[in-house]
Amino acid sequence: MTIEGSDALNDELMHLKKVERPKVVEAIAEARAHGDLKENAEYHAAREQQGFIEGRIMDIEGKLSNAQIIDIAKIPHTGKVLFGTTVKLYDMDVEEEKTYRIVGEDEADIKIGKISVGSPIARGLIGKMEGDEVQVETPGGTKEYEVLAVTHG
After folding, report:
1. How far is it, in rounded angstroms, from Cα 112 to Cα 101?
2. Which is the most buried residue in 12, 69, 97, 145, by most CB within 10 A?
3. Who's near 87: CB < 8 A, 6+ residues apart?
4. How far apart are alpha carbons 71 and 73 in whole angstroms?
């Protein structure tokens, strides 16, 4: 996981613990005050929300406790595609440039150019050097790329 990914998960965790959890506890208490819990939709909705929040907190805590945080800025630049690097590619099939940053699964967001280290494109690029031509097997078929540039950060 990158430092940015770790920071984002920590921020979400703190928000869930300090804002969302107290809010749902308050909603449950308020719904209980309304009386009969069997037919109280507000109570059941708040309990469901509480279950979701607690599950997400446990999920994030588990990910953070098992995560290996990689600061790509501390790794010497060699032109090699590594986890955390930003890769500028030339897509030979559509004749256009694309830029991707290779990140952990929880950080991936193709809309902003972040691809998971487990994605077919990232797996095909890891270990390649600037100037290499790469064939990548994707669900849509074989794609051909040239690695134009690799940057750290």
Report:
1. 9
2. 145
3. 81, 99, 100, 101, 102, 125, 147, 149, 150
4. 5
The domain boundary, picked from 41, 66, 91, lies at: 66
- 139 and 98 together in one domain: yes
Amino acid letter for position 40 = N
Number of folded domains that form the chain: 2
Q: Which domain holds residue 77?
A: 72-152
Q: What share of the chain is helix, strand, coil (3-state, %, to 5)?
A: 45, 25, 30
What angle do the packed helices 41-66 and 3-15 form, to 10 degrees?
Answer: 150
45 and 94 share one domain? no
Among 66, 92, 111, residue at a domain's last position = 66
Per-residue pLDDT of 55-104, as tens digits, reads 999 999 999 998 888 888 888 888 899 999 999 999 988 899 999 999 98
Per-residue pLDDT tens over the stretch 9-27 = 999 999 999 999 999 999 9
Q: Are residues 130 and 147 in the same domain?
A: yes
Sheet containing strand 85-91, edge to edge, reads: 114-116, 96-103, 85-91, 141-152, 133-138
Prediction pTM value: 0.73
